[in-house]
Design goal:
The chain is an all-alpha fold and about 300 residues long. It folds into 3 domains: about 130 residues, Four Helix Bundle (Hemerythrin (Met), subunit A), CATH 1.20.120; about 70 residues, DNA polymerase, domain 1 (Orthogonal Bundle), CATH 1.10.150.20; about 90 residues. α6 runs antiparallel to α7. The protein is globular, with a radius of gyration of 24 Å.
Length: about 300
């Protein structure tokens, strides 16, 4: 990122066909700063991905102090780069947020309500100055519906009609489904008690296993889980393909089981990708047959290991 910004700030050599008088050496024109600022904003989106994940949990769920401490290196580096492109207000806001982390979070066992409010106040200023990189509400709204539907599809006997009934009465948020009562779900949706109970158990189990419910605390660990799921999906798909060429009497039932197992694993993969913020990649995957999904995911994992 440093090298890209440095290159963008470099003045053209004399004779490079300037359309306007060249600026004095070492002085950036307004046009230069606008172009570099636009580049900075685009790069910052990916650069502060972990920061957004942590603040998503702070605003909408629960975040541990250690998670927030992990945001400081990225924010300090971003502040250095913002200084290069003369984004004074952003530098000031980054400094204020980092100071709040130092004061309110470091060496604390938990985050108090007052500390949470102050951190969110400081972070709001970053959103105002660069919504493209720091916004949270829209990011949550992009991830949560994918996670909710993928979890629902992992529950036995839940079909599209069941999901539509739940969503129609507002049962489409993680926190709602974690805290809902099975009898009340039955009363407002008309679905069977056994299915309602299984749905709520699924969401409570997810919350217990994933303290960060719409994001990730440790992207490396999340990618390890994705690699394990991908290996499982690959094996299941290979079994399904082999079964398709078999002629035994019980083939039809076994194919149905393998198809279901394969789909369940893919739904788990969708949850991981949504938590990693890979919404566009998910949209691409769902258009592909399973063999191509596996190949595409394998390429993604290989690229992630190199970064």
């Amino acid at each position: 990122m440093d090298s890209w910004l440095d290159a963008a700030m470099t003045q053209p050599e004399p004779g490079d066909a300037p359309a306007a008088p060249a600026a004095p050496a070492g002085v950036s024109t307004p046009g230069d700063l606008e172009a570099v600022g636009s580049l900075f904003n685009e790069l910052a989106v990916g650069y502060v991905a972990q920061v957004r994940d942590v603040m998503l949990e702070l605003r909408f769920g629960e975040a541990e102090p250690s998670w927030i401490e992990l945001t400081r290196p990225a924010l300090r580096s971003l502040q250095t780069m913002a200084t290069k492109v003369e984004l004074g207000e952003l530098c000031k806001a980054l400094d204020e947020f980092c100071a709040a982390v130092d004061t309110l979070v470091v060496d604390q066992a938990q985050i108090s309500d007052a500390a949470k409010a102050e951190l969110l106040r400081c972070y709001q200023r970053l959103i105002e100055l660069n919504p493209q990189a720091f916004e949270l509400g829209a990011e949550r709204d992009r991830r949560e519906p994918i996670i909710v539907e993928a979890l629902l599809r992992q529950v036995d006997r839940v079909e599209r009609l069941t999901i539509d009934k739940l969503f129609a009465v507002g049962l489409n948020r993680l926190e709602v489904l974690v805290s809902a009562n099975a009898q009340e779900v039955v009363a407002v949706t008309g679905i069977e008690l056994e299915i309602a109970t299984a749905i709520l158990h699924k969401f409570r189990s997810y919350k217990a296993a994933k303290p960060a419910v719409v994001s990730v605390r440790d992207p490396v660990a999340e990618r390890r889980e994705l690699a394990e799921l991908l290996a499982t999906l690959n094996a299941q798909n290979a079994d399904f393909v082999r079964m398709c060429s078999a002629w035994a009497e019980d083939v039809r039932g076994r194919k149905r089981e393998l198809r279901k197992e394969r789909e369940q694993t893919f739904q788990q993969i969708k949850v991981v990708l949504a938590r990693l913020g890979e919404r566009d990649r998910l949209a691409q995957l769902e258009k592909l047959p399973f063999a191509e999904r596996i190949t595409t995911l394998d390429r993604f994992m290989s690229a992630a290991q190199q970064t």
